[in-house]
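Thread title: Can someone regenerate the structure for this chain?

I was given the following input by a collaborator and told the matching structure tokens would be attached. They weren't. Posting the sequence so someone can regenerate them.
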Amino acid sequence: MITSVAVVGCGWFGLPLAKALVAEGFKVTGSKRAQEDAKALSADGIAGFALDLEQLSDSDTLCDKDSEAITRGLECDAIVINIPPGLRRGDNGYLKRLKRLKALMGSHEYQRIIFISTTGVYPSGGDCTERDAKAHSPASETLLAAEALFSVDEALLSADNSVDGKQAASHCVVLRFAGLIGPKRHPGRFLAGREDVPGGNLAVNMVHLDDCIGAVVALLKAQGPLSPAYNLCAPLHPTKAEFYRLAATQLGLTPPSFVEGDSVDDKRVDGGLITQELNYQYQFTDPLAMLAHC
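Best answer:
Regenerated them for you:
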């Protein structure tokens, strides 16, 4: 039974997740990059520890005090690894940071590892289930390599090498988020005022922060074998034009205009597996309705 959880990366998603886990009765540790920020987590019932994987080089030797604090923070029944890849910003250190974290985790045996990934592992061109992940760009190659780091065997992420579609040997579950929105992340400003934006007829794949938290809680409480990966994406897919026009309007901004008749390959992420297997019920099924809760 899982009673303690480490949340690596208490940022926009990780902090409200850690707070929710405390409310659920879990003993929670959480990391922040700065020591002062880590200490501040105690106000929310989270045992904070400082962990800056960017500054920690592969050859660094931590002092006994820092090493003990990190070890104590990481050695829980379960761990949620939530380190943003930053690939759109040209960040090329993502895998190095994850390898440093894995080294710090050492040989500790976790009952469950939840690795937060993205639906960027799917190419455009139709409906996407968990079986459709493949390297189709440099960014997707990096994302898939990151997912594989925390599995016993990279092959476990392939349905062809699993038992009845479930995990046979790994305690790692990959949770792939679609586009994230929620408090302090309203999409109304993303395209406001722009003209001739391409892809207006494309489907949007979105998920609300509250569902991201709910899904992690469900995975931590789940008993028995799990699938190696789950998508998290609202069941409904309005068009890009519908979504971003409404989002801008809600903020009183000039809505974007879109190119007519654009024929770029579409992509619809299927987030239904977690509902089928864990009976998880999405709190927000329609991205248009999510906008009022951002």
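Residues 4-185+207-237+268-285 form a domain with the Rossmann fold fold (CATH 3.40.50.720).
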